[in-house]
From TrEMBL:
PROSITE patterns (alphabetical): EF_HAND_1 (PS00018), EF_HAND_2 (PS50222)
Reactions this protein catalyses: a quinone + NADH + H(+) = a quinol + NAD(+); a ubiquinone + NADH + H(+) = a ubiquinol + NAD(+)
Source taxon at top rank: Eukaryota
EC number annotated for this UniProt entry: 1.6.5.9
Topology in membrane: Peripheral membrane protein
Gene3D superfamilies linked to this entry: 3.50.50.100
Pfam families: NDH2_C, Pyr_redox_2
Keyword NAD attached: yes
SMART domains assigned: EFh
Protein name in the entry: NADH:ubiquinone reductase (non-electrogenic)
Family: Belongs to the NADH dehydrogenase family.
Amino acid sequence: MRWAAFLWEGASRASGGRRPGVSNLLLVVAAASSGGLVAYADSGSDAAVEKPQLPPRKKVVVLGTGWGGTTFLRNLDSRLYDVQVISPRNYFAFTPLLPSVTSGTVEPRSIVEPIRRILEKKGGEIKFWEAECFKIDPQSKKIHCRSNVGTNLEGNGEFSVDYDYLVVAVGARTNTFNTPGVVENCHFLKEVEDAQKIRRSVMDCFERASLPFLNEEERKKNLHFVVVGGGPTGVEFAASLHDFVTEDLSKLYPSVQHLVKISLIEAADHILTMFDKRITNFAEDKFGRDGIDVKTGYKVVKVSKDDITMQNPATGDISVPYGMAVWSTGIGTRPFVVEFMKQIGQANRRVLATDEWLRVRECDGVYAIGDCATINQRKVMEDISEIFRVADKDKSGTLTVKEIQDILDDIYVRYPQVQLYLKSKQMNGIADLVRSAKGDAEKESMELNIEEFKKALALVDSQVKFLPATAQVASQQGQYLARCFNKMKDAEENPEGPIRIRGEGRHRFRPFRYRHLGQFAPLGGEQTAAQLPGDWISIGHSTQWLWYSVYATKQISWRTRMLVVSDWTRRFIFGRDSSCI
């Protein structure tokens, strides 16, 4: 009885004076000749304390692991959302170095980072599925996917995923312009696998040309490498291939090295048309000195197994034999994005149209970044009447310069073409623009009616420009969109954007603005051309070292950074690898 009283009293004290239940007692009895041992432990309160239920997180689905999608994921606060990533490739690839992979300067695995490793460093519960989206259903907010690495019970590997927000960052495919034979006979240079195929094909061409039973013409045909497209990718690949041949393969294949020919075909009048003319002229002169045959003004109309047919207004159709062809002539839209565009009334567009906040037009909760989309900048003349109404605070029917200046900052943010136009015309401000339309010398006293206001701004929309399809643009868009998602809740209460011209209040965020940081054009022979902000042009060997430092710094991890630098070092010491692996 004493043991029982002690047990009951101890249990009562441990449970705060409450009557202990069965669940509160843990009895351990060890039988012995002298008696028993009894122990007690309190397992807690009679009823489990209920934790407060957190509101369900919004589901964010990201399609693609390229520059846009990966940058978005790295900057997104994954604690705020239920994040799911879907992509047919389970890695991020540093695509600017793909031409270096084709020549063996850099190894393929040196420029890729597993996406799961990136997500692991982020923390949180981010899910990844290796699959390809083949349909977007914006009405039911659902995407349909197909996996190539596994099947479901029906054996087709298909599944669907719901979303609250969808970020489309699937990039683009190479645009063939429906030229016959391109898909069947040409290599592309968009993915790591493409670069590996090109590298093997180059070596196969040299091995075939070295066979003893071929005649001179057959050897020349096998060693004729054709690059279609004079943009940055085509030019860099041609330069990289020329270095590979002259610095490495010429030593390994001395009997056929004099038969090698590299041709660069461009439909425009010059190569690198997006660069300054000084860079364009230098590149064409250097390629001429290096023996690269640059054919400008030629349009490829057909590609067969053995010949490429091109057109020129002066010469007509010309067919040339070739051993390997690389097609690099721009980008095209992926098939499922084309179907999605038809659903939302954008069937006549080349790529997805978004507004300045990267939201897909006519589609709720869908964003698009990178090469698969373009920003459809709002025109000033489309909103000119509403701008006049907002600025005319005293409802007098006329605007003074001061009234315009009061909303000028919001106009600059909402319509950046206004500021670009003033800069292009070397105007100091809106007063100069008004004077040019009004013809008066007075400033503050000038007044404009609606027609005069339209006349003053009639030409500003000529400065609307489309962004280039580059990694730099996609990366900045991913970073911007992640920032918007991170601040979405706060921005509802404290909007930071410009005044709504159509509607009340302010926009939640400032529109996306691309900041051009410069561009490179490696030209071979350890020479690179760079066009940096401020119209600063640099060409030569020193710029090549700037290119090395920038591309090493921009690597996504220290692992890839060390691998790329070691590959460059290995190439300097031992040369490029020529094995057909």
